[in-house]
Structure to design on (91 residues):
């Protein structure tokens, strides 16, 4: 499982840097999918790294809100609340 996750991580990494998004929404969808993957199979440090990189390519507040939604859907409310108050409310 770790090897498969590592391979998928490499593919996702290549994808987000090679895809040319013609619209903001397309880019947002690609980064959202990458964040979903990292939340499901990666570590918190990988989620933070992907979020940092996503904020360089799309609207930072919008991607942070997407991340809050992902955490809520995955049932990780404690992480969502910390993220929301630290990054969105306190900015």
């Amino acid at each position: 499982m770790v090897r498969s996750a590592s391979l998928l991580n490499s593919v996702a990494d290549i994808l987000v840097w090679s895809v040319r998004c013609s619209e903001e929404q397309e880019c947002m969808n690609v980064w959202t999918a990458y964040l979903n993957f990292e939340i499901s199979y990666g570590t918190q440090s990988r989620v933070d790294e992907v979020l940092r990189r996503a904020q360089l390519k799309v609207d930072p507040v919008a991607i942070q809100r997407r991340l809050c939604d992902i955490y809520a859907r995955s049932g990780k409310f404690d992480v969502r609340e910390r993220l929301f108050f630290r990054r969105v409310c306190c900015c």
The chain has a mean pLDDT of 78.
